[in-house]
Design a protein that fits this description.
- The protein is an alpha/beta fold and 273 residues long.
- The chain contains 8 helices and 12 strands.
- The chain has 2 domains: 185 residues, Vaccinia Virus protein VP39 (Rossmann fold); 68 residues.
- The strands form 2 sheets. A 7-stranded mixed sheet has the order 4-3-2-5-6-12-11, with helices on both faces.
- The radius of gyration is 19 Å and the shape is globular.
- The N and C termini lie far apart (50 Å).
């Protein structure tokens, strides 16, 4: 049975932690947790997903509020929060909302957008709107931290039309099955700096395919000047910038671009390691 659904759907939300945990280097998690510990709460995480970063921050005794547009991802996160001790549960507040338009009455000393979530903003208008949401919720001396990756068009173009096996695993909840996650690159728009793919999740039992779910997946890319222009449009300015999560210099050898930004004209806080 093949089902097509939206990205961050039921299957992806259910198995997101297992796929992500096997593929991600935890150094980005350490970066955001250490930052929250240094600056303090409450923290606002935009695009919090299933809480890979949110929960470790709450476990440090820091209040954190999460926003995500996927009800499936938030449902997984709420179940995880429910299993935490009372003192952790009381520090977490979750909201379903679009990071381009979300508004609350709370101002924060720290906002975070981890795991390259800004790559899901596909137009300049959307990108500015997301950054304006962050700026709106910052305290006068507050900071926004986020990461994106450098464009890697050379690795995308040769694979267009091909299915690439990204990960294979046995679900913890059902060891009799095998899950396989594939990505099929569909197109690349170099003018608008976006790429379109199809995510494919296949479930096997007894060597036979029993279920397949696909979802369209689109990402945008950012250049350094593009980001600096977005900051100006959103009323933000750079406090610190790094090329890695261990705070190495941002240069041509970097794979990530990691920024700490504040409202233009705000008082600079000490965010050094």
């Amino acid at each position: 049975m093949t089902v097509q659904s939206d990205i961050y759907n039921s299957i992806l939300a259910t198995y997101y932690d297992e796929v992500d945990g096997a593929q991600r280097d935890p150094v980005d998690l350490d970066f955001y947790v250490d930052l929250a510990r240094k600056i303090g709460g409450p923290v606002l995480e935009l695009a919090c997903g299933t809480g890979r970063v949110l929960l470790p921050i709450a476990r440090q005794g820091i209040a954190i509020h999460g926003v995500d547009s996927s009800p499936y991802m938030l449902d997984v996160l709420r179940k995880k929060v429910a299993q935490e001790p009372k003192e952790v549960r009381e520090l977490v507040s979750l909201h379903e909302g679009d990071i381009r338009s979300f508004r609350s009455n709370t101002k924060y000393p720290l906002l975070i957008i981890p795991f390259g979530s800004l790559h899901h903003m596909y137009t300049v208008a959307d990108q500015v709107a997301a950054l304006e949401t962050a700026a709106f919720h910052l305290e006068p001396e507050g900071a926004l931290a986020f990461d994106v990756f450098y464009p890697r068009w050379t690795s995308i173009l040769p694979a267009i039309g091909e299915e690439v096996l990204e990960h294979e695993w046995t679900p913890k909840s059902d060891p009799g099955k095998i899950m396989r996650h594939y990505t099929r690159r569909e197109s690349t728009d170099k003018i608008h700096q976006t790429g379109s793919s199809t995510l494919i999740y296949r479930i096997y039992e007894g060597g036979k395919l029993i279920q397949e779910e696909t979802a369209p997946f689109q990402t945008s890319s950012y250049s350094y000047p593009h980001l600096r222009a977005l900051f100006m449009l959103a009323g933000l300015e750079v406090v610190e910038e790094y090329g890695s999560f261990d705070r190495m210099l941002l240069d041509n050898n970097s794979n990530q671009m990691i920024f700490m930004v504040r409202k233009q004209g705000g008082q600079k806080m000490d965010v050094s390691g």
